[in-house]
Amino acid sequence: MTLYLLSVHYVEDQPPPPPHVVEEMHKGVMALNDELQAADAWVFAGGLEEPSTSTVVREDNGEVLVTDGPFPEAKEQIGGFWVIKAADGDEALAWARKATLACKGPVDVRPFQPDVEA
Amino acid sequence: MTHPLDEAAIAQVFRREFGQAVATLTRVFGDLDVAEDAVQEAFVVALCKWPEAGLPPNPGGWITTTARRRAIDRLRRESRREERHAQAALVERPGGASEEEDAFMHDDRLRLIFTCCHPALATHAQIALTLRLLGGLETSEIAHAFLVSEATLAQRLVRAKRKIAAANIPYRVPDDAELPDRLRGVLAVVYLIFNEGYAASTGDAVVREDLCAEAIRLGRLLATLMPDEPEVAGLLALMLLSAARRPARTASDGSLVLLPDQDRSRWDRALIAEGQALVRACLRRNRPGPYQLQAAINAVHSDATTAADTDWQQILALYDQLMALAATPIVALNRAVAVAEVHGPDAALEVVDGLDLEGYHLFHATRADLLRRLDRSAEAAAAYERAAGLADNTAERRFLEQRRKLQLKTPPT
Do B52 and B4 contact (CB within 8 A), yes or no? Predict the structure, then answer.
């Protein structure tokens, strides 16, 4: 079993989808979460608040600085993520297919290092 | 042995057997790097032994067995982490004579192809992995063929193998549900390798021909391993029929010769016969796909003794079928060439002008040719100029510039 991070990306500053689409996404994600739990592939999942709510803490010359976030100065930001268990990469990609359809955004599939293995 | 086995001869045998040996060792040890290194080590052993002992009766079996022993020795010497690999390999039956093992080995190369061409890998990484692990090409040869530095190519290979290991990309043939999609990816990689060798004239001509030959070899291998997939046969036929024309594509001065002007006696008849037989088999199966249709179009071309004898009606009908399956602007552009022959350049120009291919040099080259045939010399010259400006291949650019000059000399009628 390998752990995978399935992170959902979106482009900042784009108008939010209309309410009925948000509702649909919500339902889709809930259904997928149920399916992940039933298959014992679920580890953790959650949606994140907007990037503007984030704060960056970092060490600089022995001093720890706290600044306004987010850290990546990119237009693309993470909106939420799943951490799943899968037998192999193809199984993880199969879950990611469902994830992107549910949340209607691109999903980045990234393996965890093996020492964090479940 | 009657003839001496020098390094080049041994290298040739290894190149032929490389894919099978790496594929089998990857299954046994579960690690591409271990497999690749072990086969490389077996090559060094062969260089020492073969010149004196002669070629073993079954070189492929010898390479796999030697590489397997080397890998086990090495894993034994190395850290505990590798211990379980070595253990796994030790419980495998030695040798490879049983029927079960043969069936495994048959599938090993398919597993390796599908792993090398996994969609999670970048296309250039898929190509490099396929050529290296399955084709047995040296890193330097691949780098040379794709005009990148050896360091860059080595880096690509390392990253790709690292991703396969870290993301746990499985070593297996996809199941029936995934197969059509995944097979398309594999065929695309093989065809990209072929086209890189066929279309580009930059770089070393010999290396280029090698890429075509390697793509055809991969195509033959796929056709053997997947005899029930008509698109596999279609791709092989397409490559054979294209390669058959290769000798006639360039003049003695290295310039490009287009299909209608080619000396058809220089076409390779054996390749044409093989390609046409495959096309006929595909037709009988009647499960058409884009590669089969492109092969069929090429088969019609190779049927014509002169350019004037070409059955353009048939070609246009095949393009119509192809459009129904894969309506890309490039297919539409190629179809327009057939439209010009059947319905005249006016009709074809109308089709071409409706295509959104502004940045593609062959779009302008096709337009230029149609304008030329409509005696619109000034417009034709401008289109040739645009095409030449976009072509990144020297021979093609020179050809287009010559055509442009001809248009400037022709007084408008």
Answer: no
How far is Cα B363 from Cα B398, in angstroms, rounded to an integer? 17
- Whole-number Å distance between alpha carbons of A118 and B325: 45
DSSP lists the bridge partners of residue A83 as: A5, A44
Write out pLDDT tens, residues B287-346: 999 999 999 999 999 999 999 999 999 999 999 999 999 999 999 999 999 999 999 999
Regarding pTM above 0.90, the answer is no
- Nearest residue of B to residue A110 by CA position? B167
Chain B residues 165-184 within an 8 A CB cutoff of chain A = 166-170, 174, 178
Cα-flanking dihedrals φ and ψ of residue B139, to 5°? -55, -40
- Residues 95 to 134 of B: which have CB under 8 A from any A CB? 118, 120
CB B412 within 8 A of CB B378: yes
How does pLDDT run across B146-162, given as a tens digit for each residue? 888 999 999 999 999 99
Domains and CATH numbers, chain A: 2-112 (3.30.70.1060)
- pLDDT score recorded for residue B57: 93
- Which is more confident, B99 or B136? B136
Per-residue pLDDT tens for B175-194? 988 899 999 999 999 999 99
Q: Using the predicted structure, report yes or no on whether residue B387 has a pLDDT greater than 80.
A: yes
pLDDT category at B96 given cuts 50, 70, 90 is: very low
The three-state secondary structure class of B197 is helix
Contact B137, B146 (CB under 8 A): no
Q: Which residues of B touch A109 (CB under 8 A)?
A: 120, 167
Chain B nearest CA to A106, separation (Å): 14
Domain extents for chain B? 1-97, 106-226, 238-308
CATH architecture of residue range(s) B1-97: Orthogonal Bundle (1.10)
A4–chain B nearest CA distance, Å:
8
Residues of B in contact with A88 (CB under 8 A): 168-170
The span from the CA of A42 to the CA of A34, in Å, is 9
Burial of A29 (0-12, 13-18, 19+ CB in 10 A): buried
